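User: I'm preparing a small set of examples for a lab meeting where we compare how different chains pack in three dimensions. I only have the primary sequence for this one, and I'd like the structure in token form so I can line it up with the others. Please keep the answer compact; I'll paste it straight into my notes.
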Amino acid sequence: MASPTDIRKGRVMSYQGTPHLVLEMLHRTQGRGSGWVQATLRNLKTGSSSTVKFRSSENVEFMHTEVHKLEFSYADTNGYFFMDLETYDTIEIPTDICNSIKEFLVPSNMYDILYVDDKPTDVTLPTAVEMEITEAPEGLRGDTASAATKAATTESGLVLQVPLFVKQGDRIKINTSDKSYQGRV
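Assistant: Understood. Below is the structure token output for the 185-residue chain.
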């Protein structure tokens, strides 16, 4: 068992019997009272987030974790398949883990897979992903007061706003946190 002051962003802890990923942590102390730790935790089974306070006198349990960098291969109705480039093993990750990020999964890209107790439980996206534009209508220039944009579709099915000069077949960089266009590659 460990102290709540050992809680750090990115660690996985057992909370109410299920693994939770620490998203944020804030240590507080009051003038006369004992300190406490406020942590934002994401349940790795349901995906829901919650904010929890731990007194400094409580104990917490951290779980054994590993992060492997794997290449995304393909997806089907059973799940998402990643390949370890060192051992050439194919790892299947259930659809419920990847459904929220499926529009950023591109074959041959590398992703960090979080293993908790030797089971894949989470996929971490990079800050930006390169994708090819599969559909982009011709941009019509008109009287615009600011930068004109149009809707375009990427190879994964993600629809986003891009500048008028982006055409079908172009490779672009996309910010994974807000789904915004960052530039051509």
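A couple of notes for your slides: The two ends are 48 Å apart (CA to CA). The chain has a mean pLDDT of 89.

User: Perfect, thanks.
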